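Lecture notes, part 5. Sequence design as translation. It can be helpful to think of inverse folding as translation between two languages: the language of shapes and the language of residues. The source text, in structure tokens, appears below.
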């Protein structure tokens, strides 16, 4: 009971410190541009939380999170473009007018409603993940085969988007002017977007922690380590994996929906293979089996990419590859596992005299028993 209250106190303290840093310190010390940049990184952190649950706890190497990130992002972008067209008094968004499209496509029309848009961001990617999960996990596809399949889906999704001129083609959707009635060129509203992203990240982390330390979290780890034993005990591992996969897809979709108004653009380049692998690299570097490791790793990698790209445009790819190799090869638990490694190395070695005395005592006891 004492350990439970101690862990709860540490959890509340951690959330309190994170809230102070995000809602008080960051707005006070960062410029509007850097604050928006941090909001973009927080979106990547939301994706990383879901990957940490599915990969770190469930053992599912999800190389296709760009699909769900893109679904949420494009649904939000379609709503914003329709809203902007209505503000101008036009029937279709500006890029459709340039392309000669005079009527809004049928699949765009439901997203004119803010309620339908929010429901679509939550339900559509989750439904897609459930369908994919049922087809994959029920057939016992796992390991490298699952990773290759999820990566192929991300590539196919990006190629599909490039060929669709009604959603911007290779250029994607950009130049958003409003967000649910708020002008995006207003610095106050830009800060509000950052606060929404920060609050969403905290909520997502809280939900994931509850899942990890619940009975379901223990079952998910058991499926990762001994799937056949879990099946022998009467559980269906496919259903256990399906929940984690769907939750990770939902988090990625929400992150994509927030990414659009913060960054101001979404294109096939943001949802293909390269972004999906970048999400995974951040999780691996931070520590995929921990709660905060994926978040911190994703934010750190995104920050390093931005910083190095500003000074060394061609050097980031090599630095990212070297960092990933070093972490996977020498620190499989990620940077979050360095603390435990240092504690083990600082632990004093066992005294050989005490070990010898213990062995003699054990031998004497066993002799006395046998005699």
């Amino acid at each position: 009971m004492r350990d439970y209250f101690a862990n709860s106190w540490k959890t509340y303290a951690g959330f309190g410190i994170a809230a102070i840093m995000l809602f008080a310190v960051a707005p006070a010390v960062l410029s509007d541009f850097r604050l928006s940049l941090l909001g973009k990184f927080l979106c990547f952190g939301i994706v990383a939380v879901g990957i940490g649950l599915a990969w770190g706890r469930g053992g599912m190497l999800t190389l296709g999170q760009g699909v769900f990130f893109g679904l949420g992002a494009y649904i939000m972008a379609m709503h914003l473009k329709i809203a902007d067209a209505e503000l101008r008094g036009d029937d279709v968004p500006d890029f459709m007018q340039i392309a000669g499209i005079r009527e809004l496509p049928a699949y765009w029309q439901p997203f004119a409603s803010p309620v339908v848009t929010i429901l679509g961001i939550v339900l559509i990617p989750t439904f897609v993940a459930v369908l994919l999960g049922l087809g994959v996990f029920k057939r016992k596809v796992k390991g490298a085969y699952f990773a290759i399949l999820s990566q192929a889906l991300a590539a196919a999704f990006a190629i599909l988007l490039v060929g669709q001129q009604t959603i911007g083609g290779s250029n994607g959707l950009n130049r958003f002017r409003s967000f649910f009635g708020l002008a995006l060129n207003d610095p106050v509203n830009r800060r509000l977007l950052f606060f929404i992203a920060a609050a969403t990240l905290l909520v997502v982390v809280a939900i994931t922690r509850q899942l990890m330390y619940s009975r379901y979290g223990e079952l998910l780890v058991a499926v990762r380590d001994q799937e056949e034993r879990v099946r022998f005990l009467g559980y269906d591992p496919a259903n256990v994996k399906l929940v984690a996969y769907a939750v990770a897809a939902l988090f990625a979709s929400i992150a994509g929906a927030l990414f659009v108004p913060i960054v101001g653009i979404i294109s096939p380049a943001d949802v293909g293979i390269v972004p999906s692998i970048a999400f995974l690299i951040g999780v691996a570097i931070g520590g995929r089996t921990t709660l905060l490791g994926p978040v911190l790793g994703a934010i750190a990698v995104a920050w390093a990419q931005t910083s190095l790209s500003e000074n060394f445009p061609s050097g980031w790819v090599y630095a990212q590859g070297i960092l990933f190799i070093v972490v996977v090869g020498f620190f499989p638990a990620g940077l979050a596992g360095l603390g435990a490694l240092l504690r083990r190395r600082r632990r004093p070695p066992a005294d050989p005299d005490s070990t010898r005395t213990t062995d003699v005592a054990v031998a004497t006891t066993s002799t006395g028993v046998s005699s």
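The translated text above is only one of many valid answers, since several sequences can fold into similar shapes. The mean pLDDT is 84.
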